Amino acid sequence: MEMKTRVAWATAVLALALPTAAAAVKVGEPLYVKAKNTRVLASPSGSANAVAVLQPGERITWGGADAKHKQWHKVTTSTGKKGFVFQTNLSTTPPNMELVTGSGGTQQVDPKKFVASGAAVKALSPGAEQYGKDKGGDHGEAVDDIKALEALAKSVSTADIAAHVTAAGLFPVVGASDTVAKAGTNKRSGKR
């Protein structure tokens, strides 16, 4: 047997032997959401309508990979909504509970509450801020810029985003009930 053929056979055998995340579970078994604001889409396409938005740790039921688009996986949410999620947003294990320490000792933090608190997406920790200030030069200015952006981001509400999406004629990310109705905008003018 030629060397090229042996390498091809060995590669094929190894590929079949290596487990994937999808192979680790069977259809109907649970998987867990890994990423914040994971969209469950109506079809296996990034531009499809979202039927639900999930947070880290949420449990879904796996329905298998899409036949044509293997990176998209069929799922059913805990509320019964069905759709597709991109494979990198799913895990076979629930997320680890975060451990934090403080004056009261060590405690566990629920991943959903941790994400909702904004701590998971905060750009700079107090230690990083101090490091940037101590480093001097452009580093201190960069710290100030990042802190200003964080403050600006906190001032923008979901209603503000929904109103902008409507006024700009953009595709709604979640759905009509979560965009126009909650934003309190006039559908024709985009004004409040």
Automatic annotation (TrEMBL):
Where does the signal sequence lie?
A: 1-23
| Source organism superkingdom | Bacteria
| Signal keyword on record | yes
Q: Where is the SH3b domain?
A: 28-94
PROSITE patterns according to UniProt:
SH3B (PS51781)
Q: Which UniProt keywords apply?
A: Signal
Q: What is this protein called?
A: SH3b domain-containing protein
Source species of the chain:
Myxococcus fulvus (strain ATCC BAA-855 / HW-1)
